[in-house]
Amino acid sequence: MAAAHIPTILTSRNARPLGRGHGRGNHGLNDNEGEDDPEAAGARKDKIVQGTDNDANVSRMSAVEVGYLHDPYAKLFATAGNQRRFPIINRGTYVRTRAIDKLVEDYLYSQGSTRKQVISLGAGSDTRYFRLMSREKPPDVLYHELDFPVNTALKIVTIQREPSLRSHIDDPLFVLSTDTELHAPNYHIHAIDLRTLDRAYGQPVGPGKLGHIDPALPTLLISECCLTYLAPDTADAVIKHFVRILSPATPAALVLYEPINPFDSFGKVMIANLAARGIVMQTIQRYHSLDTQKERLWNYGFVDGGGAEDVDFLYQEWVDAREKKRIGRLEMLDEVEELNLLAKHYCVAWGFREGKPAQDVEGKAEGKDEGKDDGKGASVWDRWRALPGTLEAPPVRENLQSLFTGNSWG
Questions:
Q1: Predicted model pTM
Q2: Which of 122, 169, 311, 399 has the fewest CB atoms nearer than 10 Å to its CB?
Q3: C-alpha neighbours within 13 Å on the C-beta side of residue 361
């Protein structure tokens, strides 16, 4: 997903927040302390959350207009005119988008023609699916996007209106009578409040209750500033829901983009500025560091490797010198110190599991691991293993918490 930036110190320079966390917005959910009517307060906050997708698109368009990103589809979802973001925000949008794009593409283009699945949480007006399918060799992917019905309805209207979007979706295409869900052989838009996932669909068994999700395909979950606005236990339950509906033999992974380091002076200012606008990043207290993000991935079951690195590391290690030189010429960046601070307070975390061999799942040998390429020993995560920052998981122990007295996977 191409999430918008999250307002921090820069927010104080404007009368309104600069952006939103993609799909869920910048307002914490289920955070009704001090309200006389919690139900009305919750509905009011939900409405704000549901309306913030436009800010995400504005930030994406700003980075595109300046030249950081190539995304011909962003403007198709625009509901407001172009708004130039601060250079520090454009740079952050670029690094985050490039890093997550690399993880997604390395996954999708591993193992030749093996079909894979992506489940994007809080997708909003995200354009990643269309950018992928416009490539000279588009991946063989079953792509799912989940968001509030009000956001999915707007996206579906745009898809139906724009031939350049519709052309990337296989026929037959079916839109529900409510105009909030779209289903096609390779692309699905699901209308759902993630907080109600289990309540809406029951305890998942087998292929799951969400519909159209294939439990046997290698699967990548993406949360780009989505889960951070849910209560921590709710955020955990969302991921565990999807882990449960996948076959134990299925290779699976999770990519997160979230804020970290709320306890230093910069982090405290960041949190205070957000709180002044009723914005609560609810998971940041529990998952406040790179190590706790790694531990989180392990405890979700992504035990075969992964990493968590801040945006500064991702820029230094994942962007080559030629590309750094290119973006350095795009606009004057006066806020270097603030950029460095901000880059230390957001991270990308990624973790994966290979999936259990068939003999471990069925009690007998029934063929190769779904994550392995026809006898060649390759894994869908081999490219991830080669990325700076990826570490192999330690051996499984009975007490998982004992693994994280120091660095996870280290």
A1: 0.85
A2: 399
A3: 16
How wide is the angle at C-alpha 106 spanned by C-alphas 281 and 207, nearest 5°? 70
The answer to whether 218 touches 382, Cβ cutoff 8 Å, is no
Q: Write the DSSP assignment of 10-63 as a string of letters.
A: GGGGSSS-----TTTTTS-SS--TT-S-HHHHHHHHHHHHHTTHHHHHHHHHHH
Residue 135 in tokens:
């490539």
User: At CA 6, angle to CA 71 and CA 241, rounded to 5?
Assistant: 85
Q: CB-based contacts of 267: which residues, under 8 Å, 6+ apart?
A: 261, 345
DSSP 8-state class, residue 395: P
Rounded to 5°, angle at Cα 64 from 60 and 66: 120
Residue 62, CA distances (Å) to 18, 78, 83, 134, 167 in order: 12, 11, 6, 21, 25
Segment 292-333, tens digit of pLDDT: 999 999 999 999 999 999 999 999 999 999 999 999 999 998
Angle, nearest 10°, between helix axes 311-318 and 87-108?
Answer: 60
b/e sequence 174-195, b meaning 16+ C-beta within 10 Å: ebeeeebbbbbebbbbbbbbbb
